[in-house]
Amino acid sequence: ASRSPSGGPLLTPSQSLDGAGGRRSGYITIGYRGSYTIGREAQADAKFRRVARITVCGRTALAKEVFGETLNESRDPDRPPERYTARYYLKFNFLEQAFDRLSEAGFRMAACSSTGTCAFAPEQGGPADDKIWTSYTEYVFCRD
């Protein structure tokens, strides 16, 4: 067997283990698009639409470990376990459920990012008092 400079066994990325029970380390990114409408009274009239789809980016083996049967692989079938993909999505639409599964699997949030743009303004023929905004948000989770 190959040895590392420190004398321990040399592990490939697919064999990397953490010290807490032999789980693979890595990153999983959760993303979603959202939209909301804000009227004249911005705080009182904000109307949020439900999350349409939660996307999953990461190593296939990790995504399957965390999300199991709730992972929709139809956009990237037969992906090798150690390859990365950004084409999976979840069969449920609740961010809290995704976060709970990641936490139970030993992941912690490492970063998040969000963008927002005005997609439809009154001067473009939209509702007189409303503006429709779209956003894209990503949460990066890691397990050492």
UniProtKB/TrEMBL annotation:
InterPro entries per UniProt: H1_KCTD8_12_16
Keyword line: Cell membrane, Cell projection, Membrane, Phosphoprotein
Domain of life: Eukaryota
Translocase recorded as keyword: no
GO cellular component terms given for this protein: neuron projection; postsynaptic membrane; presynaptic membrane; receptor complex
A biological process from GO: regulation of G protein-coupled receptor signaling pathway
KCTD8/12/16 H1 domain segment(s): 26-143
Subcellular location: Cell membrane; Cell projection, Neuron projection
Name of protein: KCD12 protein
Organism: Galbula dea
Gene that encodes it: Kctd12_0
